[in-house]
């Protein structure tokens, strides 16, 4: 670290150029808070402002593609293709979340008097995710994670007059506070072992010196507690069914894609950089086997518990636990192929999950229920919506010709040829996907093959905007499934992560 | 009299940590559970400050300062949620706040 | 000198333990909160022993001053007269199991604590200088400028969030 002042000022000036997207998001956050105070009519203006802000931020992020891979802000913040890929993903998820919020009755005028702060908090959450993807210091990881967590607690409890939403936010904050406490304790142990908080310095220290193995394992497990809670993998998943069910559906959609992707970005960076997989033979903490175990249990528990759920949001919560398991399979391969597969899968997961939740919102707007038994006969009453939901579910199961199939295919092929353990995991992954077929298809079954109890057949189509958005997501799901090369190449070019020696 | 070394502080922090964890696991009053979280954060801070002193770098002290700030922010939001929960459920017993299980 | 610091450490350490045991053990949340204040003050003393004066002061001001007031306010707002709201059953069996786990954890950490060998000192700062407000302030606007700025956003977010969640008459229905 430089110690004389002119050098530091020079560094900060240089770093500001690498921080434009985040500055633009911060400005947007402040702008939305201000607009919320001065405007009377907020329901259209503020989401529009947010979308425009996201587009502008996207432009600045795009400019970062050409920037040199480097650490900025005195080794706190890193800009590399890996981070830029995730920033695009977060912006996309954020923009979709804004769009689907606009169309949600749950957060509509009848239920929520003031929606301005909702968008402000959403923007702060996107900012936190940006920082999570770029953090190269344990302190920044902690701060960014807390920024995302605190915003998600607020959003989860936003429908505060509703019992479910309040309960979800309480559970979320208790689990979240505990796991971030565990994570900080783990980080303090790592700092004690290495005397560093920067992940590159930690890596350097671990490979050059002998560190106490047991303590490092314990510390890494504790840190994994914080990360695991963000990605929603077993055994840190207890919050997710209740939070997914209780939170307003747009928030659920954003949590399940955005914070999961951010958690994976940080997890991959931390474990790949700070605790590299195979340095010089003797590795202090064998995280690969540990991840294998977590992935295995997540896939099994997520898929089998989902079978018994009748609330669609709760079912998707368990399915998201299972997806965290599939994604961890890609992480534990620890090579570029695996990371590329994870990135592709996260992009695919974003499209199909937001789509599925959007359709759930549209249906709930009409029938006022998230229960799968109330979906009976919807195939006739809302043909386009039902078709879209079926496509998203096909994709979540991982069947062709959808993007979900390509994602799963990439993850499982990354596991091949690496040894029996990996092969076994891949086989279990395929088998549990077959299990998921069972519960996902309960929904189309109800929609198409069963009549509704009251025999209602009046069509209830949603607005043109809603149909257009659902169709757009549906086209993306199938389109990326057929023409996946551009996205796969983008992911391939983005696996370059700053690794210093 | 033995000299006070790093280990004394680490042991104290380990005790704080496990007591905090114990409180979180056993208590059902949401406010007391949050107090347990504060204990864990304090244990981490104590670790950081102790390590910082004994290895001569500033990062630990700085980290613990940010930790204190975050604890304050998190407590503010958490207690707002608890107040809201009390308005809905007329209780803060997390065992009874369980309407969604099937 | 060593004797004095040992006695001080033992005394403050005992207070920390009493405070934290009282926090997790006492049935009444107000008692818990007051024990927690004791714990925070004693920890402030421990920080002084570690020659981290600034952190000690911040600990007392922020934790014992701000956070605890927040906790006490909440407990009072929860209407303490309403015994039903604050009563809780103490699950002894579960508690015993976890106590066992806790003791185990202490043991593990104790053993680990004995084994941690510290990395070499990398700076010329003396312990006293590390804890000084002057140095912390300088670090805050140089090496830690970035987290410092991010924390400002985080605090603003927490303020907005706490107001949104705790404000009354938020929904048109209620």
Explain how this protein is built:
The complex is a heterotrimer of chains A (501), B (102) and C (174). Chain A is mainly alpha-helical and 501 residues long. Chain A has a domain of 215 residues. Helices cover 74% and strands 1% of the residues of chain A. Chain A has 21 helices and two strands. A two-stranded antiparallel sheet of chain A has the order 1-2. With 102 residues, chain B is mainly α. Chain B has a single domain, classed as Helix Hairpins, CATH 1.10.287. Helix content of chain B is 76%, strand content 0%. The longest helix of chain B has 31 residues. Chain B starts with 5 loop residues before the first helix and ends in a 13-residue tail after the last helix. The mean pLDDT of chain B is 87. In chain C, α1 packs antiparallel against α2. Chain C has a domain of 88 residues: Up-down Bundle (Four Helix Bundle (Hemerythrin (Met), subunit A)), CATH 1.20.120. At the B-C interface, α1, α2 and α3 of B face α1, α2, α3, α4 and α5 of C.
Short description:
The complex is a heterotrimer of chains A (501), B (102) and C (174). Chain A starts with a helix and ends in a 7-residue tail after the last helix.
Could you give the topology of this structure?
The complex is a heterotrimer of chains A (501), B (102) and C (174).
Chain A: H1 5-16, H2 20-38, H3 45-63, E1 70-72, E2 77-79, H4 81-102, H5 116-134, H6 138-156, H7 163-194, H8 199-208, H9 213-231, H10 239-246, H11 249-274, H12 287-307, H13 312-333, H14 336-367, H15 378-381, H16 383-397, H17 403-415, H18 420-440, H19 442-449, H20 464-482, H21 485-494
Antiparallel strand pairs in A: 1-2
Helix pairs in contact in A: 2-3, 2-5, 3-4, 4-5, 4-11, 4-14, 4-21, 5-6, 5-11, 6-7, 6-11, 7-9, 7-10, 9-11, 10-11, 10-13, 11-13, 11-14, 12-13, 12-18, 13-14, 13-17, 13-18, 14-16, 14-17, 14-20, 14-21, 16-18, 16-20, 17-18, 17-20
Chain B: H1 6-26, H2 30-55, H3 59-89
Helix pairs in contact in B: 1-2, 2-3
Chain C: H1 2-25, H2 29-49, H3 53-77, H4 83-86, H5 92-115, H6 127-131, H7 133-141, H8 145-166
Helix pairs in contact in C: 1-2, 2-3
